[in-house]
């Protein structure tokens, strides 16, 4: 199990990303629009820099929903390899069969 503080920190980042998504998207559209004047684009970049760092989507870490483990994350299921194996051995994941040779 991961540290609870790390999981909560990541959840806080997810909330910030949701809260600032529209504002960030609008400012990026202005900042990347080359038909506008350089001053307008620069001001949009400055306003973008004033937003919280953790409101950027790239700051979110994919973590297992069950254990909070940050590594070996399967996006399709949202869980780590360890949790995947445990659930597979119990027969809780349809279509997953343990192989041995």
Task: Write a structural description.
This protein has 101 residues and is mainly α. The chain folds into two domains: 1-61, Helix Hairpins (Orthogonal Bundle), CATH 1.10.287.1480; 62-94, no CATH class. The protein contains three helices and two strands, in the order ααββα. Helix 1 (4-32) runs antiparallel to helix 2. The longest helix is centred in the first third of the chain and has 29 residues, at 4-32. The chain is elongated, with a radius of gyration of 20 Å.
Brief description of this entry?
By secondary structure, the chain is mostly helical. It has helices at 4-32, 38-50, 81-90, and strands spanning 73-74, 79-80. The chain contains 3 helices and 2 strands.
Instruction: Kindly give the count of domains.
Output: 2
Backbone CA Rg: 20 Å
**Tell me, what is the CATH class of the largest domain?**
Mainly Alpha
* Helical segment count: 3
The share of residues in extended strands comes to: under 5%
Strand order of the largest sheet: 1-2
Can you tell me the CATH architecture of the largest domain? Orthogonal Bundle
Low-confidence segments, given as residue ranges, are none
Helix/strand-derived category reads: mainly alpha
Q: H/E order of the elements? A: HHEEH
> How confident is the prediction overall: mean pLDDT?
93
């Amino acid at each position: 199990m991961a540290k609870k503080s790390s999981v909560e920190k990541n959840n806080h980042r997810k909330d910030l990303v949701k809260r600032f998504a529209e504002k960030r998207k609008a400012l990026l559209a202005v900042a990347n629009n080359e038909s506008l004047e350089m001053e307008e684009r620069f001001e949009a970049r400055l306003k973008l820099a004033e937003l919280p760092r953790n409101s950027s989507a790239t700051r979110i870490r994919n973590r297992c929903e069950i254990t909070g483990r940050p590594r070996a994350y399967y996006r399709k299921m949202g869980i780590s390899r360890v949790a995947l194996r445990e659930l597979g051995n119990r027969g809780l994941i349809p279509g997953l069969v343990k192989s041995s040779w």
